[in-house]
Design goal:
The structure is a homodimer of 563-residue chains. With 563 residues, the first copy, chain A, is of the alpha/beta class. In chain A, 29% of the residues lie in helices and 25% in strands. In chain A, the strands form eight sheets. In chain A, strands 3-2-1-7-18 form a five-stranded parallel β-sheet. In chain A, strand 27, helix 14 (486-491) and strand 28 (499-501) form a beta-alpha-beta unit. In chain A, helix 1 (11-22) runs parallel beside helix 8 and helix 6 crosses helix 17 (551-562). The first copy, chain A, is globular, with a radius of gyration of 27 Å.
Chain lengths: 563, 563
């Protein structure tokens, strides 16, 4: 059995390795245009941030072996042809025409099964000047190595990153330092527009601003300028020229489908290759997987395109199984995505709030903040969770998390709940592990579900940070009641409205200090005491609510308002 | 509405706080025998290990307020009577007779609803000499404070802990230091016998032994001896006297059900109070929750008794809701339990292997080890997972985890899968988050499920560490093939059998060095390369398997064998 795999990163090597284990006699050839295969491109921002010492480390196995052609040959029994481009597929004859990029020779490879793992292709935004020196993308190892060399040689004092998606933000974190000013340009009005709802994105923006990143939202990059040596020296945004020494374009990629399209295979409405659940294209002898194919969203059942390394690897296994005769299907995805930047753990799964509403769901969301571990445990941090669920049934539709605390554990649990089409009630009843290093006795995730249920049942009115901002903009008659302890209030005062400060412990005695005729909104640090206070006050005042997430979410908005 | 709550830790305060929010007019009284309420007893080992600076820290809220009677009165509007004992319940008149332990006076409290949150009572093992000074349990703050004072005053050079359950091991970790020898005595042949299967318990034992804990299994503690001042000075185990300065009894507790039993309420077969899903006893006006009630196991549907702080808090919320008129049920539990000791993160959920077999399930288990984060990420650690599932259907029955890496995140996902009665196939298809700081591209949990499936499908023979030990004991004709890199082999050689060392990369050329007539078992560090090697070798040799978990699990057994 001859198997040809086009693409040597993630899916391709995974297909090859699994198939080799299942089928010792198969003749397996992997071809790739690049000179390097099977590297951890997800680690490039870590390399830029000096968390990965050498670029070669991203090519090594956990046992320290470099995954080069020799490794694949000796250790795995897999032939890898680098710098080899696939030109065309002859489906009738089951041949792939290939060309050596080194020597120029062209020949044909026979296949019984062909696997397309062609990944994504770079998208260059239409900005004049991109051809200047010191303008990079961070898709390949050599570009990353060049960027780090420039920084180490102290040739970069100002770096411009175009695109505030996941990679743009990871790179901004990696480069940002007292010696290197980072400007991050984003055409959308917020960061991570594809990934996060505005209220959660705001928490990331807040942290970036506090760390000194020059964040330019609603920003049109008009052109790059270069000096007489051909090096980039400036960027023109919104008609303003800003001097810069390095530009990194991080606008993402598009599925690389040219070969598939030319071979007459169906390209889906998402622009990626259409496959069935067995990862077969229209041609049963041609499989496709990884960043060049579309997936199915587990919540909606619709086609989607969310290229992720985790998906790519899982699909590789499914493809190998099917080729080896073990029937296997790749299931729907929740589009779970996570990253760490600016000391925040950030992620999402399922649908966003706007997306869910567009799809016709009647949505109720809640935002809550809690600690990832017992507060008496020496290491603990706050985590903000947003739950997006169907109002009437409580069916979970999506979730987003952000915090310096451990958030991704909770995200994975929520991705699991999505798979089983579970509800908020299911989350409340999860028997999650508790010990002081890992959680509070009521896990922050269960606390989030309780918060959502309280809101659904109308235990007390809740106000989101955005709602509060709108109320303030409309100059509504609001009294914010800050129920925190004096030192908390002093350290981080509530901004932007009439505020009465009464610590929760004194509220039962002093509540008459609050004006009777206003809309009373209680505020604390994380939202829990505010909730407690609002429950008490609603028997005393005509209209009482509490600020969801407290200062942990309002602080970010307040900071933005203050600018 | 008058509500009396008996018990001031975990469930009791939770009922009170939630009920206060739902029902501002309710008259809520909490009584407790002790002088201190609402403290984090789970944090006592952390206090002993100096991770919690002051004992008062375990009584504080996350905002730093001490949860004393004044706090409950002022902040929550809840009356708390400490040092007050409930003597009897008059169900007909709906009254509780109580006595002040300070002043001796006796009076009655009327109730509309009564909540029993009496927790567990100390079980004293029948060992003569327990009355000596410096013999403690670690259930209460004052005992923990006394223990730490003794250690700080350098009065303890040798400590004996009786009972190697969760608390015993946490305390052993807290006390163990170069200056303080800890002897841990356990009557069972292994540690954590109620919690973990022998193969996972072994990993904990291994780490404890390497840290210098004097672990005595199958150990009968016959008596304690005291000096002329009445202080404990020795412990007699298995007819040997060992000098010791401090004894901590950590044999767990039994549900405190005396009051309920005397009031004629049903005590279940587990010995704990029987409640329905609304947490009501036989008497609809008497609720019970926390460590004094039994639960339902989500896998079996049987009654069980697993006292946990997380359960206690959730039940408190359910009780408050029902009293306030919001119908609420507490669901079945997976008995998820986790702890951190000796730098290991350890936990279990669902059924253990033996338990599942006793219940008649045909069980297939797998053990696998992987990294919790990308190997190129600077902080990463190994995690061993054991999956216990029904052989034919793949339905997950239980799981156990252990490792220096992040294991508890995976445990929570598995607890979630259990709730939805999911399968190994479901786990393989979970869309878990991936980014280098959080996981490998194929999460260790999905790797574990893949390993289980490979085993079920018979891709290649697998050998568990215990199976290998038995084969060696029977002196079977085995060749262990160590396929690691030379430096790995040198650092931690395979012990206990005929071993051939051939790194995986050379195996395809050198496999003929392996004796043809023996049972070939491949070994690597975590199990992944051994699996790869076995897949290759099975086309060349009559009988080939690989060691599950590699040296990460065999090392512990080898260490034990070597003693």
């Amino acid at each position: 059995m001859k198997v040809v795999i086009i693409g040597g990163v993630a899916t391709g090597p995974k297909v090859a390795a699994r198939l080799r284990r299942l089928s010792p006699e198969a003749d397996i050839t992997v071809i790739d245009k690049g000179s390097i295969v099977s590297y951890g491109s997800c680690g490039l921002p870590l390399f830029l941030g000096n968390l990965v010492p050498k670029i070669e480390d991203l090519r090594k196995t956990s046992a320290g072996l470099v995954r080069d052609t020799q490794y694949f040959d000796g250790t795995k029994g897999i032939k890898v042809l680098t710098q080899t481009e696939a030109l065309a597929i002859d489906r009738a004859k089951k041949k792939v025409k290939v060309r050596s990029l080194e020597k120029g020779e062209v020949w044909e490879l026979d296949y019984d099964y062909l696997v397309l793992a062609t990944g994504t292709k770079e998208v260059k935004p239409p900005i004049p000047g991109l051809e200047a020196q010191n303008v990079f993308t961070v898709r390949h190892l050599d570009a990353a190595a060049q960027i780090r060399d420039l920084i180490r040689e102290k040739k970069v004092k100002h770096a411009t990153i175009i695109g505030a998606g996941l990679i743009g933000i990871e790179v901004a974190d990696a480069l940002n330092s007292p010696r290197l000013k980072v400007m991050l340009c984003e055409s959308q009005p917020r960061v991570l527009a594809k990934l996060l709802d505005p209220d959660i994105a705001l928490l990331v923006e807040d942290k970036m601003l506090k760390r000194g990143v020059d964040l330019r939202l609603n920003c049109r990059v008009q052109k790059l300028e270069k000096d007489e040596e051909g090096k980039v020296c400036g960027v023109v945004i919104n008609d303003e020229k800003i001097a810069t020494d390095l530009v990194i374009v991080a606008v993402g990629g598009q599925p690389e489908v040219a070969l598939a399209r030319e071979a007459g295979l169906t390209i889906g409405e998402t622009g990626a290759i259409q496959v069935n659940q067995r990862m077969q294209t229209d041609d049963p002898f041609i499989y496709a997987g990884g960043d060049c194919v579309e997936q199915i969203n587990t919540v909606t059942g619709h086609k989607t395109f969310v290229p992720l390394a985790s998906t790519a690897n899982k699909q590789g296994r499914v493809i190998a199984d099917n080729i080896a005769g073990i029937p296997s299907e790749f299931p729907a995805i929740s589009a779970t995505t996570a990253f760490q930047a600016f000391d925040l753990n950030v992620g999402r799964t399922g649908l966003g709030e706007a997306q869910a509403k567009e799809l016709g769901f009647e949505v109720l969301t809640s935002i809550s903040t809690g600690l990832d571990a017992a507060h008496f445990y020496p290491v603990h941090g706050a985590v903000t969770l947003k739950l997006i669920a169907e109002k009437a049934t409580g069916r979970l539709l999506g979730a987003q998390v952000c915090g310096i605390g451990e958030a991704i554990k909770r995200l994975d649990v929520l991705a699991t709940v999505l798979k089983f089409k579970g509800t908020i009630k299911d989350i409340q009843g999860l028997d999650l592990s508790y010990a002081p290093p890992f959680a509070t006795a009521i896990d922050v995730l269960i606390h989030a579900a309780n918060t959502w249920e309280n809101k659904q049942k109308g235990v007390v009115e809740t106000i989101t940070p955005f709602e509060l901002m709108e109320m303030l903009n409309r100059k509504e008659n609001i009294t914010l009641v800050d129920v925190r302890e004096p030192e908390e209030t002093k350290a981080n005062p509530v901004q932007g409205a009439n505020t009465v400060v009464i610590p929760l412990g004194e509220l039962r005695k002093r509540y008459e200090e609050i004006p009777q005729d206003s809309h009373v909104i209680t505020v604390c640090e994380l939202g829990i005491r505010g909730y407690d206070a609002a429950c008490f006050l609603q028997s005393k005042f005509p209209r009482v609510g509490f600020l969801e997430g407290g200062m942990s979410t309002w602080g970010a908005l307040g900071y933005k308002l203050g600018k």
